[in-house]
Amino acid sequence: MKNTRHAFKDSVLQEEFSNKGYVVVNLAEPGELKNLAEAYQDLYPNKEQGCVFSCHDTDFERKLKAQNLLRRVIGEKALNLFDAYKFVSGAFVAKHPGETSVVSPHTDLTFVDNKQYSAVAVWTPLTELTSEAGRLHILAGSHHYTPLCGSNLYRNYTDIAISSMTEIDLEIGQAVCYDMRTIHASPANKSLSPRIAGNCVFIPDEADLWHITRQDGKILIYSVDNDFYSRQCGDEASNQELLRNYRVIHSEPFESDLLENEFQRNNSQPFGFFQRVIKRLGIV
Ligand SMILES: O=C(O)CCC(=O)C(=O)O
After folding, report:
1. Is the CB of 146 under 6 A from ligand 1?
2. How far is CA 200 from CA 112, 155, 215, 246, in A?
3. Which helix (H) or strand (E) element contains residue 91?
4. What angle do CA 17, 20, 24 make, to 5 degrees?
5. Under a CB-based contact definition with an 8 Å cutoff, are residues 254 and 148 in contact?
6. 268: CA distance to ligand 1 center in Å?
7. Per-residue pLDDT tens digits for 234-274
8. Which keywords label this protein (predicted)?
9. Is the CB of 195 under 6 A from ligand 1?
10. DSSP secondary structure letters along 157-206
């Protein structure tokens, strides 16, 4: 689905972003990001496992501290690239060595009405990003087709091999800005040290911020604020309490996903269809 509201000030970046669902940019001087990597180590000195997102941290104070640090550095830099966008949330993403650190293909949550706007995630490595350490992979053009995503309205894209997606090679100082509807993933960290990244989300100044949830056979769209995303912890059951403070602005029946039906009609391997469409458009 194409929208007309520009995300980027630069028209060349905007064109590429609209077509592929992502662009690589020079975000900061490497030295400016070094402090963030050190701050991460101070906040999270203990060894962990898997791929850990600080936005799911149950220590609220620490989660907020992490977000504020990211906002000050990545947030400030990224806002210069955008055409009147605002910061919504930010998290460290620590991919620890080992097979459990795979992040399967997914889209991020739907933060805005995508008929009008794109919500953009700015993902930047804070430690050296080798192929071994697990780079971000993106399915170019997939943002044109993916449906709404909520915290308990998740789609299964595991039939897409991560190796068939575009591997995004970034130096420290660069970032990939992707439309949150774009399918992305990262393989396991096979190196010996954690791979740390920062990921911040931005939406247009005038856009209503959404939280989508599935409840009693319905899809509910809530109008929320930044505070909601700072407080929520990824666990939908505990979010229900928080959501009482916000208004439902739209509700619709949850029916079997139209895209999935389309896939089934076209191919016994659902995402073969997806990849054929994208290939036909010449996006990859
Ligand atoms: O950092 C990674 O490897 C994955 C990040 C990701 O998928 C996300 O932030 O949604």
Report:
1. no
2. 15, 22, 28, 23
3. strand 85-95
4. 55
5. no
6. 28
7. 677 778 889 999 999 999 998 755 444 444 444 434 444 45
8. Dioxygenase, Oxidoreductase
9. no
10. -TTS-GGGSEE----BTEEEEEETTS-EEE--B-SSS-EEEEEEEEEETT
110 alpha carbon – ligand 1 mean position (Å):
15
- Beta strand extents in 206-276 (DSSP E only): 209-215, 218-224, 247-253
Does the C-beta of 186 come closer than 6 Å to ligand 1? Answer: yes
Predicted TM-score of the model (pTM): 0.90
Nearest-atom index, ligand 1, CA of 135? 3
Alpha carbon of 211 to ligand 1 centroid (Å)? 19
Burial (Cβ within 10 Å: 0-12, 13-18, ≥19) of residue 196: buried
CA–centroid distance, residue 279 to ligand 1 (Å): 24
C-alpha distances (whole Å) from 35 to each of 29, 42, 195 are 11, 11, 15
C-alpha pair distances (Å), 92 with each of 138, 144, 154, 178, 216: 19, 27, 22, 16, 33
